[in-house]
Here is the input.
Amino acid sequence: MKIDILRHNSMSWDNEVEQKTEWTVPATCEQIEESRKGNIQIKITPVKSVPQEWIGNVSGKKILCLASGGGQQGPVLSAAGAEVTVLDNSPRQLQQDMETAERENLKIKTVLGDMRNLEIFSSESFNMIINPASIHFIEDVQPVWSECSRVLLKGGKLLTGAVNPLIYIFDYSDLQNRNKLIKYSIPHSDIDTFTDRQKKNYIKNKIPFEFGHSLEDVIKGQIDFGFSINGFYEDNNGGTSELDEYINTYYALLAVKN
Here is the structure.
């Protein structure tokens, strides 16, 4: 069966806002106030905050929060003095940013779009891109790195959160039953591996389809498009993943455009 992944995942994330899942809950007034004081705390993976030295002084800097709706990273960076644009595929996620900006008297530009297509932006127009864990909702990540390289200034930073692809070698329903038999290969695609019945269930319940990208596609992909990898850390899912006791299920990259 043919599925419009972009449209489906957009509606699914609108639904995530309704469910108030972790990536849809806006920054608090306290977080915004701390950012105004220079204490910038943002996450691009579930638990650990991005190191302050990765972010630096953002006052006056142009920052693109890529696939980063939800009122989390964008408002915090705006409160620290950055000129922030948030691009996301979910109207409801962007609404979270707009409402948070209005609440805190901040300026944020929001754009509804696909992270793989940044043609609305001129080349070399941003100092930094913040891309919290979201690339596992698209099939091909290479266009993302290509576009990020194009719109960043030389020396600009790309901060990416990503899912450890090893989680996709298991069937999620099996994991819930404590069954850790390897079932799938990497790269992984829900579209290619799910039965029609599973796909229909995801569509009915507005569950996002996911894709497990190889480390080569992510890390070497960034290098191939002119980035140097200058920072790395691992993270877990806060104990909510059945694999957290065995391996860190997320990682973050600091890449700098050469």
